[in-house]
Structure formats: C-alpha cells, structure tokens
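Journal club side-thread
Mid-discussion, someone asked how the predicted structure for our own chain would compare to the paper's figures. Pasting it here so we can look after the session.
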Amino acid sequence: MSDPKADSAVKTVRREKMLETAWSIFSEKSIDSVTMEEIAEKANCGRKTLYRYFDTKPDLVVSVLAWKLEKFREENRERRPAADFKGMTAAEIYEFYLDSFLELYRNHKDILRFNQFFNVYVRSEKIGEKTLQPYKQLIENIKKQFHEMYLKAELDKTLSTDVPEQKMFSTTIHLMLAAVTRYAVGLIYIPESGFDAMEELAFQKELILKEYKMELK
C-alpha cells in the first residue's frame, strides 16, 4: 500500500530536480534553443515523465522563472530588518523593496538575464494567460505586500499617497527592474574611465525614494 505523503515528497523532489536542470540549461543557452528532450536527458528522467509534470515547454519555462523568483523572495525575507516588517514605517519598508532590486543585481544577475530572455520568449511564442498563471500569481503576492505598505503610508504619512497605489507600484517595478536588468545584460554606456554600477543604481534608488518619501515635521 502506497504512502500518499511519501509519494508527494518523491514528486516534489523530482519536480525540483527538473526545475534545477532546466534552469541550468536555460542559463547556458537561449530558451528557444533548448528542447524538452535535452532537459529530460540531463535530469535523468524520461521525456514522458517530464511531460507528466509540465504539459508543454512554455509551462516549464514559466514554472522555472516563478520557482527561481520565489526562492529569491524566500532569501530576501531573511534580509528584513524585522519579521513581517514589524515596527517599521512605510518609508522604511519601501526602501527595503527598492534595495531588493539592488540585491538582485548584486547577487542574482542570472535571474535578471533570464527574465529578459523570458519576456522576449513570452511575446514571440504568444504564451497565454493560463500558462503564465504561476508567474502572475507571484506578482499578485508582491502587490498584496505593496498594498499593505501603502495602507500603512496612509496612516503614518512617511510616504506620499497622492499618487494612486497602482501607479506607484507600476512605476517602482518598471524603473527599478529596467535599470538593474540593463546593467545585468550589458545594455549600458561604458565610459572610458569606467564606472561603478552599484553606485549608479543606488543613486537611482535614492531618486525614487526621494520622490515618494515625506519629510517628517
């Protein structure tokens, strides 16, 4: 008689192995050039087994990015000055979110590069909403945390709430993600005298923080 818990644990380990293998291969090559057969072989599983976990290659690609980003979120939670941001002002929480993008660039350039290729792949393959659901759910979870911060800002007045919440969220994500991604993939101007990428990214972070942060009276 099979043990449901043991079976579930085996499936979880097997799925994790497939995701790790796919991530490794996708990071070395372009997403387009990688086949499901190649991933199955490297993961030491049959092609049919891989398809039992991921119906299509786009399903696998989306799952890989969602899995990798969730791992970064788990790691990032350990960086929080306080559990669940307890005792922190809205402005302090917002600065932590901004710093999270710098942390991505500092220690996870591979995620930023993959995300860039992922966006191109999604558009070229015309991947539908259903397939993108794991990725979109991750964004929704981030939006929920942002919402809690925005509600706190309405109370403690450490951040300006003159700008609608959705606009503030969108602007923050787009400006910071675009900046760290461009540096990660090398789409930048490089002066002859050189430059300090972290210094420039930190400067942009401070500009955005200054735009929304309220001066205490």
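Post-session note: The mean pLDDT is 93.
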